[in-house]
């Protein structure tokens, strides 16, 4: 691909990729490889809803401590899987969407659709084990999660734009998310846990905007 565009890697080139092993290996020499902000944000959201702890190395880790949000996430994911396997989606006004671990943004869509058909689900789940999962979900917490995640979806969409440049938007979008993660008095416990983890522990770290800063200094 580089040859097609008459390009050659050297120490003046910056390459933005995710952190997959093949990408790390391919761009470990002859250029500056920096992490993708879109991929980084996806991973932090994934950690907040799925990870008990995060290891920075073999012996060092931090607890995520987002139990309430993770419980809702697991119940929703279980119910969505059951409904899709049982082929009863035609009874709902909207088709439930499964979550793919390769990109957490799909989980935000899963949450939003689930919220919209929440009161339609008992008709499908009655007399099944999944009804137990349904009864453990607090609708208000579900609504709070969807509202909290909406700006993250907007940022992910903006950073994954493939027809317009988005590099200049990384830092202001990151600052916007940090502002959103400030704890407010009316926040529920589930939202406070997410805000503390994402805002204070993850988004304040420099990885998400390192590519912009490095390019600025290079210029």
Summarize the topology.
Blueprint: E1 14-17, H1 21-26, E2 32-35, H2 37-50, E3 53-55, E4 61-63, H3 67-85, H4 105-116, H5 122-125, H6 130-135, H7 139-159, H8 170-180, H9 189-203, H10 210-218
Helix pairs in contact: 2-7, 2-9, 4-7, 7-8, 8-9
Parts with pLDDT < 50 across at least 5 consecutive residues: 213-219
Largest sheet, in brief, is: 2 strands, parallel
- Beta fraction of the residues? 5-15%
Placed side by side, the strands forming the largest sheet appear as 1-2
Helix/strand-derived category reads: mainly alpha
Distance between the termini: 25 Å
Residue-averaged pLDDT, rounded? 86
Q: In sequence order, what are the helices and strands, one letter per element?
A: EHEHEEHHHHHHHH
Question: How many beta-strand runs?
Answer: 4
Helix content: 40-55%
Spatial shape: globular
- How many separate structural domains? 2
Radius of gyration: 20 Å
Oligomer: single chain
Number of helices: 10
Short description:
With 219 residues, the chain is mainly alpha-helical. Helix content is 53%, strand content 6%. The chain folds into 2 domains: 1-35, no CATH class; 37-206, no CATH class.
């Amino acid at each position: 691909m580089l040859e097609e565009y008459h390009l050659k890697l050297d120490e003046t080139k910056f390459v933005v990729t995710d952190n997959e092993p093949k990408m790390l290996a391919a761009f470990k020499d002859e250029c500056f490889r920096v992490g993708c902000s879109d991929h980084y944000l996806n991973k932090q959201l994934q950690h907040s809803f799925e990870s008990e702890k995060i290891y920075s190395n073999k012996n060092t880790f931090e607890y995520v401590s987002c139990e309430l949000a993770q419980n809702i996430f697991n119940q929703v994911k279980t119910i969505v899987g059951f409904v899709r396997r049982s082929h009863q989606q035609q009874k709902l006004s909207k088709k439930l969407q499964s979550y793919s671990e390769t990109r957490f943004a799909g989980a935000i869509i899963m949450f939003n659709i689930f919220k919209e058909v929440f009161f339609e689900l008992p008709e499908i789940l009655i007399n099944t084990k999944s009804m137990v999962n349904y009864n453990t979900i607090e609708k208000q917490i579900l609504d709070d999660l969807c509202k909290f995640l909406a700006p993250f979806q907007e940022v992910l969409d903006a950073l994954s734009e493939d027809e317009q440049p988005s590099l200049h938007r990384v830092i202001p979008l990151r600052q916007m998310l940090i502002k959103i993660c400030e704890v407010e008095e009316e926040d529920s416990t589930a939202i406070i846990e997410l805000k503390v983890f994402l805002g204070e522990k993850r988004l304040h770290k420099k990885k998400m905007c390192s590519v912009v800063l490095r390019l600025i200094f290079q210029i």
